[in-house]
Structure formats: structure tokens, C-alpha cells
Design goal:
By secondary structure, the protein is α+β, with helices and mostly antiparallel strands. It is 38% helix and 24% strand. The strands form two sheets. A five-stranded mixed β-barrel has the order 1-2-3-5-4. Strands 7-6-8 form a three-stranded antiparallel beta sheet, with no helix packed on it. Strand 2 (19-26) and strand 3 form a beta hairpin. Helix 2 (86-102) runs parallel beside helix 4, helix 3 (111-125) runs antiparallel to helix 4 and helix 5 (186-196) packs across helix 7 (210-237). Bound molecules: zinc ion (ZN). Zinc ion (ZN) binds at residues 152, 154-155, 158, 161, 174-175, 177-178.
């Protein structure tokens, strides 16, 4: 089956003398792994289009094997500014890695592709410390694992106690009485709420502070917790 789709190259591996295996998150076919034959030869028509983070319009062939075959590629965006800045490049590679970890092969969910192209476009224009945590939190929420931020996840009858901590294992915030997990300031809690309510722009423009660092730490911990749990359940199934 021949098909055409847009995607972002998440990573590439060398294969043999001249080929690459690529992982792409696509608009209509979820995460796809494919062979780009001859793409390491300078005269190949694929050369110059197949590299991590490249936004491409692809022609692909799907046979019976696990890997599809790239038969054509045209660059849509190469994010020139982002590539010249090591901080932004590092953030962009982490976004791609997160999408690779969380998106299933050959699904049909367009949202991770849309989120990633949106984040790369933004990152190409300006850098924000909050872009990565906001992205991870929204991706978790999209997968149905949004944290509970409204009230204490542990107890009942503690509605009046202030929220003081965040516990990834419980999936949300905890109050002064049931304090568990990592300490959380009021400012950081407010930022987490803004992101999960979709008001990301209000957070992206904030100057770095102890609150923004706290949000980054909490979200990273939450991400690791969920990914680890998923990897372990994959082991059990395997
Ligand atoms: Zn409580």
C-alpha cells in the first residue's frame, strides 16, 4: 500500500552502508518506523530530508513487514534558528524523545504530531524554560493521565487544609494533613493548573523562578513515573 503523510522525524539509525531506519510521528498514521534506502548517499533524492526533528512530507510504502519504506521525502520545515542554539536543540530532542516514548506504533491519533509541530515552531521563534514541562504535562493529559490538581488526592474531610505537595504515585496534589511526595508551592500549583486548563501561553512567557523550576521538576517526575509504569506493564505482557 502506497500512502502519503506528514511527519516529524523523531530519530534515525544507520543501517548497512547507505540506508537509515527512521522513526516518525505522523499526522494520520501515528508513529511509523520505516527504511529510507540510500538516504546516506549524497546523490539520493532522500538525502538532506531525513534527519531528526525534520518536518517532512513523505511518500511511504507499507508491505507486510514491520518497517515501511520511504519512497519520497520533501522538507516542510527544518527549524533553522532552533538548530543553531544548543539549549533549544536539546529541548527539541527531548520533545521528540517524549513523543517516541508515549505514542503507539501505527495509531491514528493526530494530536501528538500537532503538538510536536506546534512546539517546534514556537521553539524556533523563541526559547522558554516552560515549553518542555508544559508539553510533557499536556501529553500526559492527552493520554488520560492528567494529575488531579483541584483537591487532596489522599484524604477526605481536608478540604480546608492548604495544598502543599505533589505525589506522582497518587496522581495528584496532597494537603498539609496528608502531606506526601514532593513539596509544591502555591505559585507552582497555579502554573500546573494553567497548563492543564489549556492556558499554556500564560506560562510560557514567565521568567525563570523557583516556581518554574519546581513545575519542571514535578512534571519530569510525573513523566518518569508514568513511563516506568508503562514499561513495566509492557514487560509483564511480553
Ligand atoms: Zn488531604
Amino acid at each position: 500500500m502506497q500512502y502519503r503523510d506528514r511527519g516529524v522525524v523523531l530519530r534515525t539509525f544507520k543501517l548497512g552502508e547507505a540506508d537509515r531506519i527512521i522513526t516518525i510521528v505522523t499526522s494520520e498514521h501515528g508513529k511509523v518506523r520505516a527504511v529510507a534506502k540510500g538516504s546516506r548517499r549524497t546523490r539520493s533524492k532522500l538525502a538532506g530530508h531525513i534527519e531528526p526533528l525534520r518536518h517532512v512530507d513523505l511518500q511511504l510504502y507499507r508491505g507486510r513487514g514491520e518497517l515501511d519504506i520511504v519512497t519520497g521525502a520533501v522538507t516542510l520545515d527544518r527549524w533553522p534558528t532552533l538548530r543553531c542554539d544548543l539549549d533549544r536543540l536539546g529541548t527539541a530532542m527531548t520533545l521528540a524523545e517524549a513523543v517516541d516514548q508515549s505514542v503507539h506504533d501505527r495509531g491514528d491519533d493526530p494530536v501528538p504530531y500537532q503538538m510536536l509541530t506546534g512546539a517546534l515552531r514556537r521553539l524556533d521563534q523563541s526559547h522558554s524554560e516552560m515549553l518542555l514541562p508544559a508539553f510533557l504535562l499536556r501529553l500526559l493529559a492527552h493520554e488520560g493521565t492528567a494529575p488531579m490538581l483541584e483537591g487532596c488526592v489522599v484524604g477526605t474531610g481536608c478540604e480546608d487544609a492548604p495544598i502543599v505537595a505533589f505525589d506522582p504515585a497518587q496522581g495528584g496534589v496532597t494537603c498539609e494533613v496528608h502531606r506526601r511526595g514532593r513539596q509544591l508551592s502555591g505559585g507552582a500549583l497555579e502554573m500546573l493548573r494553567l497548563i492543564t486548563e489549556g492556558r499554556v501561553n500564560a506560562v510560557l512567557d514567565l521568567e525563570p523562578s523557583s516556581d518554574t523550576h519546581e513545575v519542571a521538576a514535578v512534571v519530569t517526575r510525573m513523566w518518569e513515573y508514568h513511563m516506568e509504569k508503562r514499561l513495566r506493564s509492557a514487560d509483564l505482557l511480553g
